[in-house]
Amino acid sequence: MSHTLDLGLVGNGSVAMLVDRHARVSWGCIPAFDGDPAFCALLEPREHEGGDYAIELEDFAGAEQEYVENTAILRTVLRDTHGAAVEVTDFCPRWRQHERWYRPVMLLRRVRPLAGTPRIRIRVRPLAEWGARRPETTWGSNHLRYLLPGFTLRLTTDAPVRLVREQTAFVLERELHLVLGPDETLTVPVADFVHQAEQRTRGYWREWVRSLSIPLEWQEAVIRSAITLKLCQYDETGAIIAAVTTSIPEAPGTQRNWDYRYCWLRDAAFVVRALNRLGASRTMELYLGYVFNLATNEEGELQPLYGIGLEDELTEQEMPALAGYRGMGPVRQGNLAWVQKQHDVYGSVVLASTQLFFDHRLANRGDQATFERLEQVGERAWALYDRPDAGLWEFRGRTGVHTYTAAMCWAACDRLARIAVHLSLPERVRTWRERADAMHARILAEGFSEAAGHFVATFGGDQLDASLLLLGDIGFVEPTDRKFIATVEAIGRDLRRGDGMFRYVAPDDFGVPETSFTICTFWYIEALAAIGRKEEARALFERILSRRNHLGLLSEDLAFEDGEAWGNFPQAYSHVGLIMAASMLSRPWRDAI
């Protein structure tokens, strides 16, 4: 079966699983986002069948799939050629219990006959050590155990255990329940546990969605994106991952296969800002707890990314037992970008923290002590804004003084000056305002090309890159500034292809980019609206929305020719872009009320 990214995401802040249109779990790492992918069928194991968890319907004819409205509960209906039908409901439990969140490493499945006499086969085939071996399996009267490295999975079920163990087909005559999770005995009947868990989990998600401040238009798309971002936060530490997967190629047949199961400070700051826009500020509070726990080096510098457990070394290696998505390896674990210098991270941290000082809804608002910790970040921004780095596109073979990097460092100093005003610290206001003004003048002088008539990617250069679209958004220039308008127009001319947008077109370490980077298209949509071309922006936004998969999810990249999804999935960046663009473009609620 040729894999696609027509996948659904279920999760609970501890674990995440991807389920295909046929109710097959094809990706899931145990015991956390960055763990061993016990379910790795998406990346095609070479040596063993499996790496999946499937509910197969004999004589399969077709399927429908949807989320239960305003939840992360997935419902798949399988139909056979004889008119029989089966419903599979998938979710990871999450609710408030004993003054804390109940969010175990667990996937619950409920399998119910809808019509006819369906014959199903249940296959539970986790693999260990990145697809290299089958785990040892034991069983009892109502359970199976899979002995993975460092974690034992237990499947507790009221399905016939022998038939599950031997993958034998049987007639589904009644509703069945399957609990895949820690090696712990359930204290209540499995059917009762699943039904109560589903009810509580549905209640949790609907209450969370009810608290969102969503735009009038495109509500379904925004809600689905918000839930997806929520599922990318690892609650135990507050880290926010860039995507659930590793090594889905950015384009077919390239070597651009990266592991995104880590926390990039930049990407996470965008997620925080998008969810803050919707009023979901708890994500910010958890994430800032993560950031303030990170260890800096002797110079006080931050890495671009860290592990979800605060790890600062993310050694990159290839995992040969997995052939890769559609056989397009290599499959990588770890990400070498952790050794890079990407100085925009200092701006990302300060921007993610700023609301902490001004939002009166928060129980623990920013104070002078918090400000002083952020000043240490600002000192690095001031020291490094005009030094070469790898940039936000993480070039591996070259460095430069990137205009976006410099502008983000300016944003760090600018926001520190604003916070100092709020905290009535006049000396600190003066220091940070003077620095921000000096940086602003330097960036304007060297990051804008009079010859080209627009901002450029690097100081003194002549190339464009899509990050320049953010200069208006972060407040470096006004959207009405002729320099910014000219830059948006130049990017539309040189980086846009149809409805897609290149990050840049200059060759990099792996050749010429081939696919559209989805968040760049959303940045362009926002920039168009900001410079007064709102109807054009709305039309483009609607067309990009139509490129989401059948469940409303987006990967990192889209092919220019046919709109096929490529890159890691689901991509937090892309859903951030959707939320921010929708919020900017939507008609106000007063138009409907």
| Percent of residues in β-strands | 15-25%
Strand order of the largest sheet: 6-7-8-11-17-15-14-13
Report the biggest beta sheet as strand number plus sense, adding barrel if it closes. Answer: 8 strands, antiparallel
Structural class: alpha+beta
How much helicity do the residues have? 25-40%
Task: Classify the oligomer.
Answer: single chain
Number of helices, counting only DSSP H or I runs of 4 residues or more: 13
| Number of E-state strands | 30
Radius of gyration: 24 Å
**Average pLDDT figure:** 95
- State the separation between the terminal residues, measured CA to CA: 49 Å
Low-pLDDT windows of residues: none
Which overall shape is indicated by the principal axes computed on the Cα atoms?
globular
Task: Offer a concise description of the structure.
The protein has 593 residues and is of the alpha+beta class.
Task: Describe the fold and architecture.
- The structure is a single chain.
- The protein is α+β, with helices and mostly antiparallel strands.
- The chain is 32% helix and 21% strand.
- The protein is built from 13 helices and 30 strands.
- The strands form 9 sheets. It has an 8-stranded antiparallel β-sheet with strand order 6-7-8-11-17-15-14-13, with helices on one face. Strands 1, 2, 3, 4, 5, 12 and 16 form a 7-stranded antiparallel β-sheet that branches.
- A hairpin with a 3-residue loop joins strand 13 (136-139) and strand 14.
- Helix 3 runs antiparallel to helix 13 and helix 4 (265-277) packs parallel to helix 6 (344-358).
- It starts with 6 loop residues before the first strand and ends in an 8-residue tail after the last helix.
